[in-house]
């Protein structure tokens, strides 16, 4: 066996010494390929990294926004969330920088989780403020970045011009982000019940029902992940509808003039409901 | 914009997207058909009688590449050019097969590795993305790897057909290809998986060369060729 291997390798050596030199056209071509592939992989990795940061910051914004149910000054939280989202947008600006002149779909897989999370955060904030669904255009309109021209390029006589850089959220990413939003809305609903807010649950159930109808309308024409998320959406909707049902039933049991008292002590009434979450 | 309006806008986008994919799929099917025809033509080189007919088979294959070029130019009209990678998955497989076929023809004709430019030219497409429908570098490399396993088969069959010099030339070529691929830093992706198979091709060809040299058949053939 040993002898055989030795023979093979020496034979190979004799053969390869004759012809494989490092300046052959094939090796030359592969050196070019190496560079091209490395550049591409590096860009991909950078995008993954930015996308992770976007995800983390968006998640934190969502946690912050969940506090609106328990504090008196909603506006302060919304402003703080705005500041956080501005930071996220700057990160997305970095993605747009990386993608300048590229086919965005080539690297789409690298940054789609971050973008979906951003859509979730920004639409959540929009809902708390306006009680409506943010549209795709509204999201994209805020992802326009001004960039000062690279100072290295033309040195003299060229005015330092700015140019506009945009980032477009794809409809699929928007859709998946909105699907994630419904989970947050369910949490918001349950916690606002816990805090004695009787209006929000009904608004939320109506809003969730509209979104649910929207997703049913799209059905399976959408990307594959949508059908998976639709299942979770149904569960969230179920929880919210149950909460509203309980509110209505318990509410009618109690005389009108005593309602206020009941709602102040709602926390205890609704405790079993919270356990479900 | 109400929720319903928003969703019907998205739905419109999604169904338009599906229509485009449907169109692409139809063209890709015809391309796959042509690729199979070319493969059938080239497969005959593995027959003992086929070795003498290599040039004529290559000619025939090149003729069939005309059809490929028209089909690919039809494919180009089915979607906006800057969205190449959005639909890439649909033609990725067939484009790799076609690159393999082009590379195989070029190898049989001149025993050289097809360059990316040549391959793109045979298929009637571009090399750089900016210029339009192009040959992605990973698809090109994947096509070259498919050719490597085809060549290891050819080495075996050429011995059966009594051609003892061809395996040695193939061995040189594959070795060079192997050292080329070793320069690349591949990620854990499909290309890397395919590259992992290259060593078995190399091994197989080395065994063939070994069998020939231990029986003195390689030398014999060489001296004969020198005469």
Automatic annotation (TrEMBL), chain B:
GO terms for biological process: RNA metabolic process. The keyword Nuclease applies. It is found in: Cytoplasm; Nucleus. Mg(2+) binds at residue 150. GO terms for cellular component: cytoplasm; nucleus. The keyword Heme does not apply. Keywords: Cytoplasm, DNA-binding, Endonuclease, Hydrolase, Magnesium, Metal-binding, Nuclease, Nucleus, RNA-binding. Pfam families: Translin. Its main location: cytoplasm. Ring-shaped heterooctamer of six TSN and two TSNAX subunits, DNA/RNA binding occurs inside the ring. Belongs to the translin family. PANTHER family: TRANSLIN AND TRANSLIN ASSOCIATED PROTEIN X (PTHR10741). This is Translin. It comes from Periophthalmus magnuspinnatus. The lineage of its organism: Eukaryota, Metazoa, Chordata, Craniata, Vertebrata.
């Amino acid at each position: 066996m040993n002898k055989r291997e030795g023979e093979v390798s020496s034979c190979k050596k004799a053969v390869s010494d004759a012809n494989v030199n490092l300046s052959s056209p094939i090796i030359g071509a592969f050196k070019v390929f190496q560079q091209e592939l490395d550049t591409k992989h590096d860009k991909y990795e950078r995008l993954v990294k930015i996308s992770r940061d976007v995800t983390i910051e968006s998640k934190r914004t969502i946690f912050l926004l969940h506090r609106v149910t328990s504090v008196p000054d909603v506006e302060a939280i919304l402003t703080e969330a705005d500041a956080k989202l501005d930071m996220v947008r700057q990160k997305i600006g970095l993605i747009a920088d990386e993608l300048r002149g590229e086919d965005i779909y080539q690297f789409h897989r690298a940054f789609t989780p971050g973008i979906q999370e951003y859509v979730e955060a920004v639409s959540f904030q929009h809902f708390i403020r306006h009680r409506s669904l943010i549209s795709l255009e509204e999201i994209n309109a805020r992802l326009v970045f001004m960039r000062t021209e690279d100072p290295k390029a033309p040195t003299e006589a060229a005015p330092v011009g700015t140019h506009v850089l945009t980032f477009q959220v794809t409809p699929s990413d928007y859709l998946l982000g909105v699907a994630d939003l419904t989970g947050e809305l369910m949490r918001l609903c349950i916690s606002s019940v816990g805090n004695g807010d009787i209006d929000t649950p009904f608004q939320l159930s109506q809003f969730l029902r509209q979104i649910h109808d929207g997703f049913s309308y799209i059905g399976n024409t959408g990307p594959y992940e949508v059908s998976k998320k639709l299942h979770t959406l149904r569960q969230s909707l179920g929880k919210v509808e149950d909460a509203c049902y309980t509110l209505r039933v318990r509410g009618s049991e109690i005389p009108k003039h005593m309602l206020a008292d009941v709602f102040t002590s709602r926390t205890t009434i609704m405790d079993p409901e919270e356990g479900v979450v | 914009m109400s929720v319903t309006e928003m969703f019907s806008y998205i739905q419109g986008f999604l169904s338009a997207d599906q229509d485009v994919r449907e169109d692409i799929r139809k063209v890709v099917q015809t391309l796959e058909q042509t690729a199979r025809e070319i493969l059938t033509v080239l497969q005959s080189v593995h027959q003992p009688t086929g070795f003498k007919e290599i040039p004529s088979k290559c000619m025939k294959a090149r003729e069939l590449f005309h059809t490929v070029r028209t089909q690919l130019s039809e494919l180009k009209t089915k979607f906006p050019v800057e969205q190449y990678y959005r639909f890439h998955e649909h033609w990725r497989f067939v484009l790799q097969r076609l690159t393999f076929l082009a590379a195989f023809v070029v190898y049989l004709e001149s025993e050289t590795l097809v360059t990316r430019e040549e391959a793109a030219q045979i298929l009637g497409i571009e090399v750089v993305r900016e210029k339009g429908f192009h040959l992605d570098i990973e698809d090109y490399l994947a096509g070259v790897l498919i050719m490597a396993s085809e060549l290891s088969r050819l080495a075996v069959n050429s011995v059966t057909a009594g051609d003892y010099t061809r395996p040695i030339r193939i061995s040189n070529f594959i070795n060079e290809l192997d050292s080329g691929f070793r320069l690349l830093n591949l990620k854990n992706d499909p290309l890397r998986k395919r590259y992992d198979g290259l060593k078995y091709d190399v091994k197989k060809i080395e065994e063939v060369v070994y069998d020939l040299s231990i029986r003195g058949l390689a030398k014999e053939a060489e001296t004969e060729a020198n005469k």
